[in-house]
Amino acid sequence: MPAQGRHDGVGLMAGAQPRPGQRDLTSGPIAPALLAFALPTLGSNVLQSLNGSINAIWVGRFLGEEALAATSNANIIMFLMFGAVFGFGMAATVLVGQSWGRRDVDAARRALGAAVGLVLVASVVVGALGWLFSREILLALATPGEAMPLALAYLRVIFLGLPASMLLVLLGMGLRGTGDSWTPLWFTGLSVVLDSGLNPIFILGLGPAPRMGIAGSAVATLIANGVALAAMIAWIAWRDLPIRLKGRELRYVLPTPALVRVIVGKGVPIGAQMLIISGAALAMVGVVNRYGVATSAAYGITQQIWAYVQMPALAIGAAVSAMAAQNIGAGRWDRVGQVTRAGLVINLAMTGVLVVLVVVLDRPLLRLFQLGPEALPIASRIGLIATWSFVLFGATMVLFGVVRANGAVLGPLVILFMSMFPVRLGLALALQPALGADALWWSFPAGSAANLLMASLFYRHGGWRRGTMFVPEPPEPEEQSHATMEPAGGLRPTG
């Protein structure tokens, strides 16, 4: 009888088949697999954005503009918090993906367990400190006085729900590392349905629920994420998915120092990219606001449309990263270049079609937001000048996704900083005397073009192919009797 890997996956043998819900991305046609993997990720992104929009409608309709301003200030803070978990999550996803490609499921579990431990501790500490210092944080953001009590009530509840929110995102990213993009979609959908449905119940105090006002919106989010997280953990255990931890494996949430160094060393630069994007966006808003209310309103609505335009690029970038990581782990470098090319073509098709639709249908779309007669033509011009740059943005996400799949994170960080600040903001400020507000809109394609050029050079000549990320082996116990050793505990792939 041929040798088999253990049922718990500690030593999954080469050639073993993925469990239900997992996708082996190291064999078979690349483009169809990449597209099939990216579409559920795109669905998750759309659901999350729709959830935010629906909740904003509930808050605005029932509680007014001050409440909307309060949630906006709190959401800025939460975006920064998610930047940190995104970095650790991406680092863990790469480690999980490469380990899954090598068929070393124990290493994948150790990587994800370490990330769970880090994120859980960090989110509890940050949540506690955030609750204590919520007022000071909001004052630092110059939250309007009339919105302060509402923002304080909302933000404190959001901080209480931080651990569940962070872990839900992290487990979804870990599942994608094993090639499973459908499970995160289902549980994102569960969270969205619960959050959207519970918002009016807790805001207004319908039925047995207490009337909580704006805090009720945050309570709805807390409950929705908590239920979705518990359900996802139960599903992972029931289906015996590769990232599940049980028995002695639960100790993996207490990571070794070597594994902490790997995850933090790779995760911090990835998280810093989110800070750069946030900083550049805030700086651009400050410049735009100088042109008056109509321009600010037009830019704000355009940003909402762009949030949907960029979703295919983000989904394809995540799919490319997971697929490249598995193939790098499997030693299939011949397929990594094919993954890159397929990602570029799919991005061009999906993002390109979406950009054309948005540009052609810009007036009908903008009228949905009830823009005034002064702001409408401004928003239309912004879209005409800058929306096409998301095709370039998507190509950059593909290249960054591939190099990040082998642990190259500092190069993309430097490139992103250069394209956002010296190029985009520098050109926006330098060309204003000649072009006026148009200088701001032209800075977007200029920054995207510079980003893509530098990313292409790094992809070709950056040396990111050298070396491979490995999950450090845990230290061996000094004494371990045969009675306490798990059978076949030392099995590793033989292929």
Tell me what the structure shows.
By secondary structure, the protein is mainly α. The chain has helices spanning 30-63, 65-101, 105-132, 134-140, 148-160, 162-177, 182-204, 214-238, 257-288, 293-309, 311-329, 333-360, 362-367, 375-386, 389-404, 410-430, 432-435, 438-461. It is globular.
Topology:
Elements: H1 30-63, H2 65-101, H3 105-132, H4 134-140, H5 148-160, H6 162-177, H7 182-204, H8 214-238, H9 257-288, H10 293-309, H11 311-329, H12 333-360, H13 362-367, H14 375-386, H15 389-404, H16 410-430, H17 432-435, H18 438-461
Helix pairs in contact: 1-2, 1-7, 1-11, 1-12, 2-3, 2-5, 2-6, 2-9, 2-11, 3-5, 3-6, 4-5, 5-8, 6-7, 6-8, 7-8, 9-16, 10-14, 11-12, 11-15, 12-15, 14-18, 15-18, 16-18
Secondary structure class reads mainly alpha
Task: Report the mean per-residue pLDDT as an integer.
Answer: 83
Task: Show unreliable segments.
Answer: 1-17, 478-495
* Distance N to C terminus: 17 Å
Number of strands: 0
Tell me the number of helical segments per DSSP (H or I, 4 or more residues long). Answer: 18
Order of helices and strands: HHHHHHHHHHHHHHHHHH
Described by strand count, sense and barrel closure, the largest sheet is:
none
How would you describe this structure in keywords?
495 residues; mainly alpha; 73% helix; globular; disordered N terminus; disordered C terminus
In short:
Helices cover 73% and strands 0% of the residues.
